[in-house]
Amino acid sequence: MKELAAQKKVPHRDFYNIRKVDTHIHAASCMNQKHLLRFIKRAMKKYPGEIVHVERGKGQTLMEVFETMNLTAFDLSVDTLDMHAVSGGG
């Protein structure tokens, strides 16, 4: 009830004159390849011991995940990431 009373006190506020927040996000396109690459390389430097994957109750650190793929931060490139943006209802 307080919210309704507060809304009625605001002059010239109707359906066509309101502030709204668009919560519909496209997570697949939230960052580009370069941004993701920088994020991963920074994480490899600062947090190599951080557990990032758990399978069958056993955690794997960021460094271990990269070791299983035979990769280092130096090996990473935009081409290695091979990202593709999804368009449409994805």
UniProtKB/TrEMBL annotation:
SUPFAM superfamilies: Metallo-dependent hydrolases (SSF51556). InterPro entries: AMPD, Metal_Hydrolase. Keywords: Nucleotide metabolism. GO terms for cellular component: cytosol. GO terms for biological process: AMP metabolic process; IMP salvage. It comes from the Eukaryota. It holds the Pfam family AMP_deaminase. GO terms for molecular function: AMP deaminase activity. Belongs to the metallo-dependent hydrolases superfamily. Adenosine and AMP deaminases family. This is Uncharacterized protein. It comes from Oncorhynchus mykiss (Rainbow trout). The lineage of its organism: Eukaryota, Metazoa, Chordata, Craniata, Vertebrata.
